[in-house]
Amino acid sequence: MNIVTGKSLLFCVSIFCGGLNMVACKSARQHSTPTTAPVQAVNAPSSNPDAARTSVLNVQKLPFHYLSTKLKIRYEDEASSFSATASIRAAQDSLLWVSVQKLGIEFLRCRFTPDSALIADHYNHTFYTWGYAALSKELGVTVSYDLLQALVVGNLPQPHTQSDSIANDSTVFQPVNDDVFWKNIIANTRPKHLLLSDTARKSELSVALSSWQTTPQNVNFALQKNIHLQYQTQSLDTDHTYLQLEHTRLEWPSQCPEFPFKAYPNYKQVKSF
């Protein structure tokens, strides 16, 4: 019988809305070989001026007021796999709303704001309230609202400035702190592959974008996202999680869509900031 694990739950909602830990329905079958190629380890840009330079590439940012999209999801980790559908609605810089369904029944609803993440797990009757510092600690990867929004629309994970290092006129290195940096590969002025490396936590997040559609804003949008998280467990083993997302419907409403959400006071309450 399928069960939803709390850690798996957090990954699915965070990443495809933009960021990371895990919602999974465990299957009775043995784990199969993942269909997404493993991410290759990368090193931070060299201080050699011939290896990386400081400049700015022409990278288009997708602006929007409101977004509404439906997706197909394929999830796989070391012990489980499942398929589901999801709906995402967004108001730029203020709100991300997610509903995840299995066989037409919603088992997860999420509401992300710049301050917090609210997750209603209908399967386990648990309501999570997370601050991003606590969520980042739980997931082993730095997570923020801006990161989630950038991943939803396929923008760079942080603004591109002259302090970024550039290699081969197509790769942008963006430091987050001394231990964490992004390696972003650009093609046709849009991010094509995003790779987050955290040397302290020994984790890597890879996001490969493909199947482009031109939006009304005349900016390309990736309808396919292949996501791979590689991280070190407490037992010092290396685990992998894979997530494949396919946008099946994409809309840019002129009016603010609805973001229905309630607190579910009868659910078990879990809070962490």
UniProtKB/TrEMBL annotation:
State the InterPro entries in the record: DUF4292
What domain of life is recorded for the organism?
Bacteria
Pfam families given for it? DUF4292
| Name of the protein described by the UniProt record | DUF4292 domain-containing protein
